[in-house]
Structure formats: C-alpha cells, structure tokens
Design brief:
The protein is mostly helical. It has one domain. It is 59% helix and 0% strand. Helix 2 packs across helix 4, helix 2 runs parallel beside helix 6 and helix 5 runs antiparallel to helix 6. It is elongated, with a radius of gyration of 23 Å. The C terminus is likely disordered.
Length: 185
C-alpha cells in the first residue's frame, strides 16, 4: 500500500529532527567533570559559610569559589577580602559521592555490554557507551575534587581545627545596602 504525501512528509520531518539525547549527551559529558570537581572541593566551605554564601551576589560567589578552588589546590587566594581557603591534600577524600556514581555508571556499562551480547545483539540496556563516558568524567572530576578537599571533621560547623585555619572577613560577607565597596551588593 502506497504512503500518502502527508505520511511521507511526517517521516521526513522525523528524520530531520535530532533526538534530544543526541543534543544533551555532549553537554552532560562536557559538564560532568567540572561540576563534580567544583561541588566536591567547595561543599564543606560553602557549608561553613552558610547563609553568607547563599545571600551573596553572583560576582561575590564567583570570587569565593575562585578562592576556594585556587586555595585548596595551590594555596593562592587572589581575593583577599573574601573567604580564604588553605591548601589541603586529602587522599582519603578520593572516595566520595561523585566517584561512587562514576564507578556505578562504569559497572552499568560493563554489565550492559555483557547482557546486550548475551541477548544476540539486542539493546536490553541502552546507551552503555554514553553512560561509561559520563561515568569516567565523574570519576576523574570527583577524584580530583576529593583529593584536594578538606578532611572530614567531627563538627561540620567548626571554624578551625588542628589541621586548618579558616580566615574570612565578616564585613565582606554582609549583604547590607550601605556597603560601598566593590564586593558588596
């Protein structure tokens, strides 16, 4: 039975539109390692800052994150008026939520490839290669972030321990409208 013109046009339109997974996959693959790294390395510091970080403006948040990332990895705090994070190396921090997620994604890929081969080439578990690539990115980003992350303390709200001293200016963290400095909003 011959297809109508409307059916042929509908099929052609379906072929022209890219699948949403083809659009999203490169974005997720590219962003997964930096997101895992930044979240892991800055989570405890953001928790210490609490509402001071949450209420800060976008530029001030970027300054704080820059100080956290450069401070934890290289011991450099370019913005002296903002929160200062000391350099830390923590090999036990490599195993964290991001590396666990990446490892599980790699396990899914290995099991998925084995199951797909057993079912005569059928895709029982789809997108195993894409999941594996994202898992590798999470593993690398989370591992690096955990390596430079601060060690776990018994009290997460504690400002100083025997291994670190945290220095930040409360005046730069204020959100008052009378602040005329460049970092105040």
């Amino acid at each position: 039975m011959a297809k109508t013109k409307r059916q042929r046009l509908a099929e052609q339109a379906k072929r022209r539109l890219p699948k949403i997974s083809k659009i999203i996959y490169p974005i997720v693959k590219t962003a997964s390692a930096p997101v895992a790294f930044i979240d892991q390395i800055s989570a405890k510091d953001r928790q210490i800052l609490g509402s001071n970080y949450d209420n800060a403006g976008t530029v001030q948040k970027m300054k704080i994150l820059t100080n956290i990332i450069l401070g934890r990895t290289a011991g450099i705090n370019p913005f002296s008026s903002e929160y200062k994070a000391p350099q830390t190396i923590n090999p036990s921090g490599i195993l964290n939520k991001w590396t666990n997620a990446g490892g599980l994604m790699i396990v899914y890929s290995v099991l998925g490839n084995a199951m797909n081969k057993k079912v005569l080439g059928s895709n029982v578990l789809p997108a195993t290669n894409q999941v594996k690539q994202i898992g590798k990115s999470l593993l690398i980003g989370g591992g690096l972030g955990g390596f430079f992350d601060d060690s776990i303390s018994s009290n997460p709200h504690q400002k100083s321990t025997g291994t670190r001293q945290i220095a930040y200016s409360n005046s730069s963290m204020s959100t008052s409208s009378s602040d005329s400095s460049a970092s105040g909003f």
